[in-house]
Design a protein that fits this description.
This protein has 313 residues and is α/β, with parallel strands linked by helices. It has 2 domains: 2-104 and 299-312, ornithine cyclodeaminase, domain 1; 113-295, Rossmann fold (3-Layer(aba) Sandwich), CATH 3.40.50. It has 11 helices and 14 strands. The protein has helices at residues 6-11, 15-28, 101-120, 135-145, 160-169, 183-189, 230-235, 243-249, 251-258, 271-275, 297-312; strands at 2-4, 36-40, 48-57, 61-69, 81-89, 95-100, 127-131, 152-156, 176-179, 192-195, 214-217, 237-240, 267-270, 289-292. The strands form 2 sheets. The protein has an 8-stranded parallel sheet with strand order 9-8-7-10-11-14-12-13, sandwiched between helices. A 6-stranded mixed sheet has the order 1-6-5-4-3-2. Helix 3 packs across helix 11. The protein is globular. The mean pLDDT is 95.
Length: 313
């Protein structure tokens, strides 16, 4: 059985190969039950949460991501979230590999956004604004740089020190990375804007988006959370990773949907429809596109299969 730690999981998931693996998985599909959420009592502390996200390809592979969230760990100096991915044979059930769940999640999430950008962002996109400076930000920048000819990337965060720290970590040949101090000015100039925050209030205004811009919304994974305003949704052509997930969990679409500003039918396509060619993606040079993702178990499965087959040869 193969066991990959964080660094080994990262090394086994190079961007170009991972993006193509997601493209194939979204095109061909797999069995993907609804994710499981379970409350777990912790005596004397706040309850923990156990998340189980299964997916499989009949006769090929079976995978499940297991994530635990223990709020009390902050008082113990431990991470609140732990995760592992278990990959098994779809023919025998034999356990084949255990991967670092957090690293797998970070890379497949960024790869899904880059896959969407490959269909939706302008072909000559050179300037990117990254909103948020958490773990996902570096992954998102690197992934987008693998599908578009980026030359300038600016990072905005509520805490400029965190943005500066992330800037210092990113080394992409031919790409200049800097801290953005004025989010509006940076957004108005950006060809691609990617947001990965836990914001409950809009950070990006639709009136800031220039013609031809692509807005990638990765954070705000609960209906109560939001990274863009109503104007952004009204101006943009809307795309999602999965319709069911985005329309039930992503506040950027759920809130305007509930307010009657948009309808479910306004979503032009999901990643499956883009990857299969049923929708062409961007159709006009001046079109503003918006992609909302909340994650899907098939992304984890695609990444785990790639990592296993890469390492095992």
């Amino acid at each position: 059985m193969l066991v990959l730690n964080e660094a080994e999981t990262r090394a086994a998931l190079p961007w170009n190969a991972l993006i193509e693996s997601l493209r194939v998985m979204f095109r061909d599909g797999c069995e993907m039950p609804v994710r499981h959420h379970h409350d777990v009592a912790v005596p004397g502390e706040a309850a923990a949460t156990l998340l189980l996200m299964p997916a499989w390809q009949p006769g090929s592979y079976i995978g499940v991501k297991m994530v635990s969230v223990f709020p009390g760990n902050t008082d113990r100096g431990l991470p609140a979230i732990h995760g592992s991915y278990l990959l098994s044979s779809g023919k025998t059930g034999q356990l084949l590999a255990i991967l670092d769940g957090a690293e797998l999640t970070a890379r497949r999430t960024a790869a899904a956004s880059a896959l969407a950008a490959d269909y939706l962002a302008a072909k000559d996109a050179q300037r990117m604004l990254m909103v948020g400076a958490g773990r996902l930000s570096q992954n998102l920048i690197e992934a987008h740089a693998s599908v578009r000819p980026l030359k300038e990337v600016s990072i905005w965060a509520r805490d400029p020190r965190k943005a500066a720290a992330t800037v210092a970590e990113i080394k992409i040949p031919g790409v200049t990375v800097s801290v953005a101090t004025d989010i509006e000015a940076a957004a108005r100039d950006a060809d691609i804007i990617s947001c990965a925050t836990l914001s409950s209030e809009p950070l990006i205004r639709g009136d800031w988006l220039k013609e031809g811009a692509h807005l990638d919304l990765v954070g705000a994974f609960k209906p109560s959370m939001r990274e863009s305003d109503d104007r952004a949704v009204e101006r943009a052509t809307l795309f999602v990773d999965t319709r069911e997930g985005a329309l039930s969990e992503g506040g950027d679409l759920v809130q305007p949907l509930r307010a009657g500003l948009i309808k479910a039918g306004d979503l032009r396509a999901d990643l499956g429809e883009l990857a299969s060619g049923r929708h062409a993606g961007r159709t006009q040079v001046n079109e503003i596109t918006l992609f909302k993702s909340v994650g899907a178990a098939l992304e984890d499965l695609a990444g785990a299969i790639l990592a296993f087959e890469t390492v095992r040869g």
